[in-house]
Amino acid sequence: MTIKLPSPFPKDTKIQIASPEDEFENKKLPESQYAINLITKIETPVQAIQDGIIFKVKTDSKKCSLDKKLTNQANYIVIDHGDETYSEYSHLGTKTPIRVGQKIKTGETIGYTGFSGYMKTPNLYLNIFKIEKGKPVSLPFEIKKPKTQEDIAKIAGMILILTLAGIAFIFSRITGNTIGEKTSNPYAIILIILALISGTT
């Protein structure tokens, strides 16, 4: 069963969701089979996607390149969610406001994206896993993309259209134009057109 989770970034953050490919391929590795990379700007706040307790933290690495020797040099945070599942946030920067053993709420900032470990672009490596026979096993999950500025602009446009539609309706009432067999209603037509436009934007 796929777990559905909120985005690990603030709601106005623009991101691109990608599965590791080529030299970053991990589909054959049980511990990271369903992990994803969330490409975004460096120094973007990273938020907990579920309540839990900070289990592990590494924030002392300033090394970053495509040298596979740096695979274990990424800064990361692991959260224990208390239901036998864990979330791992990797390729972080060196600063973090949290410590091991600290209780965390969903949406609370735990760190910031950065350059650390084996990587080539700023991104957050996100993985959900459980422990089976002493080894991590990746779990399938989905996250909802946060609202971007484009989404907000669309909402604002729809509000404007609905406002204009309301004004058109008021004018139709004031001028006495009603929908019927003997009278035409240009304002009603405008209302219908605007409603159709708002439904397709």
DSSP strand (E) fraction?
Answer: 25-35%
Enumerate the spans where pLDDT stays under 50 for 5 or more consecutive residues: 179-183
Radius of gyration: 24 Å
Could you give me the name of the CATH homologous superfamily of the largest domain?
Answer: Glucose Permease (Domain IIA)
Distance between the termini: 33 Å
Secondary-structure element order, N to C: EEEEEEEEEEEEEEHH
In quaternary terms, these chains amount to single chain
Number of helices: 2
Give the strand tally.
14
CATH architecture of the largest domain: Distorted Sandwich
Structural class, by secondary structure, is alpha+beta
CATH C-level class of the largest domain is Mainly Beta
The coarse silhouette is elongated
Helix content: 10-25%
For the report, how would you describe the main beta sheet? Answer: 8 strands, antiparallel
- Average pLDDT number: 81
Structure notes:
- This protein is an alpha+beta fold and 201 residues long.
- The protein is built from 2 helices and 14 strands; from the N terminus they run ββββββββββββββαα.
- Strands 2, 3, 5, 7, 8, 9, 12 and 13 form an 8-stranded antiparallel sheet that branches.
- A hairpin with a 4-residue loop joins strand 7 and strand 8.
- Helix 1 (149-175) runs antiparallel to helix 2.
